[in-house]
Amino acid sequence: MARLFPRLTATTLQATTYLLGVALFSIAFLVFLNSSISFVVTDVIGQKEDVGSAVGTLGFADELLALVACPLWGLLSDRIGVRAVAVSGYCIIAFSLVCLVQSENVYPELLVGRLGFSLGAAACSTMVTAVLPAMFAKRTEGEETDPAVHEIANGHAARLPSQLAGLVGLFTGAGALVALLIFLPLPTWFQGEGQSRAHSVQSGFYIVASVAVCVAIFIFFGLRNLPGEEDKTLSALWSTPYDESTKTTDDGHLHTTLTPAPSYMSLVKESLKLGFTNPSIGLGYLGGFVARASSVGISLFIPLFVNAYFVRNGLCTSNPDDLTDIKENCKRAYTLSAALTGVAETAALICAPLFGFVGGKVMKGRSEWPLLFAAAVGVGGYIAFGFLRNPDAFHGDGGQWAFVAVVLIGISQIGAIVCSLGLLSRGINQNSDEHGEEEHPRPPTASTLRPDATAGSGGDETTPLLPQMGAKGAGSTHQGRRDQSHLKGSIAGVYSFAGGAGILLLTKLGGALFDSWTSGAPFFLLAIFNGILLIAIAVVCGLVKVTERNQRSTGPFQAGAIPNTQ
Q1: Which residues of 149-173 are buried (b: 16+ CB within 10 A; e: fewer)?
Q2: Which of these CATH numbers, 3.30.1330.60, 3.90.470.20, 1.10.1060.10, 1.20.1250.20, describes 1-234?
Q3: Non-local CB neighbours of 312 within 8 Å, separated by 6+ positions
Q4: What global pTM score does this model have?
Q5: pLDDT digit string, tens, across residues 145-180
Q6: Each residue's pLDDT tens digit, 455-482
């Protein structure tokens, strides 16, 4: 791992835990439950009617809770650490999986179990984003380098988040395969061993819950002492933490300051504000919105589109609004849907590391270009699929275009995921490389606690230990830097919130337009989402160009200017 990413602050064990624990299984358990929840309703509870309505209601409640839970988990991780949140999330998932198959009715027991799972899954998915910025080192404190060497080092460091984000996309895709190839066949295997359908489903859930516990243990030990997380403990939940920073004065003395950590509400406000003031983070939020909506377009609306085509042409009689009915009564449509979604996910899996590699190799100031490409591909792919007259790629005229469309859709989806994660991590770490080196936050040492450590310039002992909140100059510079580097959990929560909002908007509005207008409506809506992202990137690039031109004519950036997204 060190050879692939030589500037990692994380150890090889920590990076491996992030990829194989947090990233891989955050999606694996979610795919497993979404694919098997209908069998809990029919086989464990025994409800045979209105299965689609029950599953849809459970999914909608899941997303509503996740919409609130993701930002809250992000806030907590800024206080108690990403490891504690990730471990808690997987433990909650394990407990919820056991409770789900103990349910005797849909409402309220199965609903409560599904909401518990949503709470745990929200923690895990948010930590996929929050852990990424902690993987890379900042420039060594007090290190003086030649400007040319410093520029090269910063350029290399800026590439790393995108490259690791590509691996994250690859492992999340692999997590879906783990669910499909290992977790989902478990009930069938147990049934083949002589268990009843209900007991086989329960046994499968128990095995997956055991895996979740093992993952939690793996993360507990694997993410210990993660860089930047050393001072975060559970006690911070009810105490008022302080951020300590030191700076070396002109006469060589160390000046120590303690600043009260911001409240939870101020963390939320600052994270939202960064979406409008930091181009990288703003585009990351918007990219997350598009990426999560695209995942629903692939997993939900492609099967509905295909089945509606078969029903419209009299090829099967299943209800196009009920995926369970599609599986039972229209095998051909279900097989075609699985093939198309499989092609899309395969294209995404292949392109994930490519987007990470390209995102790390783009020229300085062009870090948005891979996301721009993904959005453009998405516009073309979704419009093409929405206008398909025949989605059957194996029979009929023009069906081969369905494969082309789903490949473009898969490329767009993974591009939005990887590039938004890379931009978000780059935006979080950006200020730590841009600001001066006068102040260096670090844990207290013997040297910082000696009598002259609290002296200001010239050893004036009247200098206050706690700086005034309205102070300018170096103190405000440190505040700006701290807000970005210490907000990774809150920013990850807002990122997940944006993704959840995209899912809810697409499922409700896209579903309504699917019934009232045309079966291609959800894909046209996704094309609009990608078009908005495309326009936003173009606007940001234009503003950065104008700012760079002004910088060349008036000098260095002034406070409040739009920063370079590189």
Answers
A1: eeeebbeebbbbbbbbbbbbbbbbb
A2: 1.20.1250.20
A3: none
A4: 0.75
A5: 333 333 334 444 445 566 778 888 889 888 888 888
A6: 344 444 444 433 443 333 333 333 444 4
